[in-house]
Amino acid sequence: MPQLKSPEEKQKSAIKDWAKYSGLAFQLLGACLAGVFIGRWLDAKMQLERPLWAVFLTIFFMVASLVSLYRQLK
User: Fold this and answer.
1) How many CB atoms lie within 10 A of CB 22?
2) N or C: which terminal CB in the chain sees fewer CB atoms within 10 Å?
3) Where are the domains of the chain?
4) Which of 26, 24, 28 is nearest to 72 (CA)?
5) What is the pLDDT of residues 10-56, one digit of tens each?
6) In 11-52, at which residue ranges do the beta strands (DSSP E only) sit?
7) Which string of DSSP letters, residue by residue, matches 47-58?
8) Residue 32 near residue 65 (C-beta atoms within 8 A)
9) Residue ranges in the chain assigned as alpha helix (H)
10) Which positions ≥6 away from 28 have C-beta within 8 Å?
């Protein structure tokens, strides 16, 4: 028979879950921002007319972050 949780335990569990998932959202945001800033820096260094590195690295870092997020949630 499952043990019933007290209101305090339910609140602590909810806060813990909220912190976990908000941390994952910040991880995704940080990876996207890293791709943008590193890509823009490379584009400026190479004097490219189009932001090729910025687009490529943003997509790459976002996909890598989503794979990491999937593994953490699995």
Assistant:
1) 10
2) N
3) 31-74
4) 24
5) 788 888 878 888 888 899 999 999 999 999 999 999 999 999 999 99
6) none
7) T-SS-HHHHHHH
8) yes
9) 7-46, 52-73
10) 62, 65, 66, 69
